[in-house]
Amino acid sequence: MKNLKQSIAALGICCAALLSTNSAFAQNADGFVDLIDGVSLEGWNIVGTASWTIGNGLIVGNKPSGFLVSNKTYTNFIIKAEFWAESNTNSGIFIRCQDPNKPSQYTCYEINIWDTRPEQAYATGAIVDLAKVNPVPKAGGRWNVMEIVANGSHFKVILNGEVTVADGQDSKYASGPIAIQSAGGVVKFRKLQIKPL
């Protein structure tokens, strides 16, 4: 009888743990919420023709051209992302998208991941058409950590500990979904987290 009670208690603990550890959209102790879990596309919609593969803790885009767009809308927040890109990869993190079916630099704020962008002022670490970067940090061929702060009309971007946008300012888009882009070359995301402000 004692063994049966212990087995039932252990089963209860396991069930509770399973129900509370859904890694996508689980809040961490620091207040950040995981937006990707590396095993599914839960919470995301596929837009466009890009090829996305999921597994081993990663979401990988390796074919143009498309997006993963969040189901949820966000207003003021901090995003933390860990990504790997080739030197010629064209990607980015798009925020406050106005049309979740057609994300672009014209309907969202695009924080760029593209070392070889022809217009270098808006290459990796810049906010396209809003905040230039100089010098352009090189993200290709390694894992990078990007932090994006969107608070009202103020924006900040930090890449690998270096501030690339100190105080971009614009009030065109107040809120909207987040999107990650695959527009050429390989891009891998192993962490994408958000913390509301």
Give an account of the 3D structure.
The chain has 197 residues and is mainly beta. Helices cover 10% and strands 39% of the residues. The chain contains one helix and 13 strands; from the N terminus they run αβββββββββββββ. Strands 1, 3, 4, 6, 9, 10, 11 and 13 form an eight-stranded antiparallel beta sheet that branches. A five-stranded antiparallel beta sheet has the order 2-5-12-7-8, with no helix packed on it. The longest helix is centred in the N-terminal third of the chain and has 19 residues, at 2-20. The radius of gyration is 19 Å and the shape is globular. The model is unreliable at 4-23 (pLDDT under 50).
Task: Put the structure in a nutshell.
The protein contains one helix and 13 strands. By secondary structure, the protein is mainly beta.
Fraction of residues in helices?
under 10%
List how many beta strands DSSP finds: 13
Stretches where pLDDT is under 50 for at least 5 consecutive residues are 4-23
* Main structural class: mainly beta
Distance between the termini: 51 Å
The gyration radius over C-alpha positions equals: 19 Å
The helix-strand sequence is HEEEEEEEEEEEEE
The rough form would be described as globular
- Total helix count? 1
The proportion of strand residues reads 35-45%
The main β sheet shows up as:
8 strands, antiparallel
Mean pLDDT: 89
Keywords, separated by commas or semicolons:
197 residues; mainly beta; eight-stranded antiparallel β-sheet; five-stranded antiparallel β-sheet; 1 helix; 10% helix
